Amino acid sequence: MKNVKKVLWIFLATALTTGFYACEDDDETEPIVPVVATGPTQNIAEIAIADSRTDSLVVALTKANLVSTFTGTANYTVFAPTNQAFVDLLGTNPSWNRISDIDATTLTNVLFYHVLTGKVMSTALTDDTYATTLNTQGSVNNESTVIEVDVTGGARLNNSANIDAVDIEATNGVIHIIDEVLLPPNVVDIALDDERFSTLVAALGVFGDTLTGALSGNSPFTVFAPTNDAFQRLLDSDSTWNGLGDIPRSLLKTVLEYHVVAGANAQADEISQGQVLNTLGGSTLTVDLTNGAQLMTGKMNQGNVNIIVTDVQGTNGVIHAVENVLLP
Q1: Range of the domain at 19
Q2: Looking at the structure, do residues 111 and 216 belong to the same domain, yes or no?
Q3: How far apart are CA 240 and CA 262, in angstroms?
Q4: How far from 155 is each of 32, 149, 290, CA to CA, in Å?
Q5: What is the Cα gyration radius of the chain?
Q6: How many helices (H) does the chain have, and how many strands (E)?
Q7: Which pLDDT tens digit goes with each residue over 37-70?
Q8: What is this structure's pTM?
């Protein structure tokens, strides 16, 4: 109905304007031109309802009682999965034949994982960054989980979902259309999705499901994750090491366990100067904040190691990236 009214108003405005120009004006006064509204006229929910690509999203929002969330004045950024994306999601679970088969809690968690607070246009999305979502599934202290953003060679989320359409502006935010329903990740999923941790993933894979299985549990965990460059520096430190397979398995396992603090979801603002962290392997790390966020390891000649990315929150813990492999 609003769109019909808008079309009628534009038609009327055009007719009136044409009429004024057609009339002779002896006084040479300027014609009166009605002002036509510009900019978005629909809220996020209205746009989703009107767009045939997001019919399933509307069904999901209705099932989770979230439609009203996106009709207000608060601004949001919504990564909206297509209908086919929901079809693909249903295919991952044999008990899901339709969206109504997904329990409301799970559906709410998944939907909130596609939403950011505030209006984030596509030009503000930058490569190898993390965006904080509204989802707090399973995280300690209700910390919000993150989505990883890549824009090199095409915009993608979590190294998986393609952003097919961008910057559909609403009165209360913006919508970007994506081709996959994303699921809130645990700390292992985050490492798998970020190519900067591919060597870490390979190192964990040396031990099969032993370490990845443990880190997929509910502990929670704080993981200090070495980047690919960090592992390369470790390999370069020994002339006999050309790859992960050259590092003795027992040493590699000890080193990997040294990067994990079990039983804690320690975000950056919860880590204090001089704090001693007990690692999964039974050793300790000491926090040093005097020259930025750093860790003191058990290796006396290693020196402090910089924490270069913080607060990459998953459903079962948080990751902080470090620029060197920590040595016990």
Answers
A1: 1-38
A2: no
A3: 32
A4: 46, 7, 38
A5: 26
A6: 10, 14
A7: 578 999 999 999 999 999 999 999 999 999 999 9
A8: 0.86
